[in-house]
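User: Here's a chain of 798 residues. Predict its fold as tokens.
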Amino acid sequence: MATLAHADPASAVDVLAASARPWLFGVRHHSPACSAALPALLDALAPTAVAVELPADLAAWLPWLAHAATIAPVAIAAVSRSGDELGFYPFADFSPELVAIRWAAARGVPVHAIDLPSGRRGGIERGPRGSRERGIAARLAGDDGWERLVEAPAVLAEPERVRRAALLYGWALRLDTGGDVDAFDRARETVMRAALAPLVAAPGARVAAIVGSFHAAALVDGDDSLRGAANDPGASVDMVSSLIPYTFELLDARSGYAAGIRDPMWQQRLWQELAARDGGDVTGLVARCLVEITRAIRARGLPASVPDARAAAELAMSLATLRRLAAPGRRELIEAVQSALAQGELLGRGRVVARALGEVLVGGRRGHLAPGTPRSGLGPHVAALLVELRLPHEPMTEPEDVRLDPLRSRSERSGSAGPRGGAEGRRGASIDRRRHVAMCRLRACGVPYAQQLDSVGVGGVDALTASWRIRMTPATEAMIELAGLRGVTLHQAAAGALRAEHAHLDGDDKITPAALIALTEAAAEAGCGDLVEAWLAALAGPRLADASLGELIALVALVERIAAGHVVGLPASLDDAIPGEIDVYDAPPVERAAIVGAAVASVLGLAGSESLADARALGELARLFQRAEHAALGDGRLRWSLDELARTGTPLIAGAAAVVQVLIGSRDHDDLATQIGGWLDAAVDREGRSRLAHRLRGALGVAGPLFEAEPAFLDGLAARVESLDDDAYLARSSALREGFEVLSTASRRRLLRALGDRLGVTDARGLGLDVVTEIPPAMLALAADADAAGRAAMEELA
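Assistant: Prediction complete.
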């Protein structure tokens, strides 16, 4: 007998369908046709065991998947204890694996999870299936091939015909690889065969294996022709798994789920029709969907009538007849809608019809777990907290932006407890603080829920408001389950996660000052005062000498924010604390003088730097000395160090040091303006122009606003530029442009306004210099003609 690798399609499907050790059903993981056919096939086989393609280490969830009160869609989430491996295994009512699990549970037949454990999947090579140009995978890609060859013809077909079509499709895909199966699939199939061997060897065993159609040929007993070499699984890691609700929006392939299918609500309703068998009406289902789509179009303000729906239904039926299908399917439905309802418009009406299609065919169904389903203590705590804080707590397909006002005290926001009075008034007044801290704690736990969009106001001042972008996904719930290993409340879990991160960095000898400052700030925002106290002591003590100037400036800023009560998670007053959730923080004294002194001592180390960040750190140090409490700390040493930087530093640092000298009062504005003019005059060659660009970058990076506020700076530079002839200016223009690129767009506008005031020129609105030159149309026409003539000449020369 020919092997599967050399058999013709008819012989191959006969071999696959006749396999008894095990009996095989090759499926797509979410297939209404396979799901509807499977119960009758299992009833006829009466297996003694059912094997499903599910990681073996997730078998503990099988009883909960089969529970009568579990409402699909649901998913098993598995994440490594380190948080770097995350996998989802979703199930819908039309998932053949879930149908098999429920069938077996109802009849007391044992179910076995036979796939590669989730904890052994890391680091294994994965590649695309079917790379030959002549192969079926190249001609009919992904879902489209399955839809055309299996799903659509299987509507109302006999169950065995559906099984044979699915097995044939998987065999063709397997043949398409030419034996080049990637390491990941080989490892999975090695584990599946090992798991099936003892099951089929049992006396009188009838084992039904429900696996992906691609893998079926690799499990046929006695035929190794399409197996490929066995491959060892990866090293095992500890995983934390949980059963979580899922949604149809996330099951849809357009959400990014690799094994997803298009339009889950359509698939759900089709499965319900096919599963009925005695009364299923697929044609009626298409008609009902069309009525709902036209209703959704009308709800969006566009005309769509019953005749339109009837025309679309007739077109869908005609397409099914032309394609020799028993009934129209998803493909025919969508093509009919595109023709009869979208009316050929890609934009405008087409977009409205697309949204209506999504509403009807994708749906918003969400699953629910059975009562008593095991969950970590943290999961219910976070769920209840999000509901109490009126934050999104259901899976979302689009993010939601919120703006909070967490730093305002209750007296500023409401004056008192207000008409609600008592604890209720206090809770309402502090809800933005609670929301902010809760999201910071989720972030500290590594839970992908909220991303902070801004944290500072204009000019580096702490902003009173904070913007967050929130998106609740299955990954959020999976990571919450993982974080539950470190605590049963969000506060405990955040503290545990931060301690674990510190221990991890310490074990890898990566506790740098920058890393410890970042951890301390995260702990402060999460309200973990004990960690903040311990890590600040380390930063202000033995690790102080290792910090760079920028890190020391960041440390001083963090200490001052905490001391001023400007860190939301560490309120300085009892009035802003929330008992049992956000504790008042009595900031321990930190020797700020020692930190500032270390910053001054590190200034000379910047002499060779080419980093704009270092130049800006120098400016921040100058701003520290403008505060009364720091005015006398190391002032003499700082002045001497700045003199050295201005004299011996790189052009960028020298330019920054020159501005800082003015900021601390060691030189006057006119002297700096004269020096800047000298930079321009000295730019007579390539090296001089490079120095000019870098010196301007350093100067403007530190104190761009000075060039707007102090006429002396602007006048000195502008006067020198105005005195240059055209050739001298053009030679320096590139360097000037590079120097001014450090300014923000808003700063450039303000600078143009100042230039306009200097020149007495304003734009049409009287706001400053208008850089748009009005050229007469006749001149524009002449320029266009010259350009055309030049192009023609170049083409002739070429």
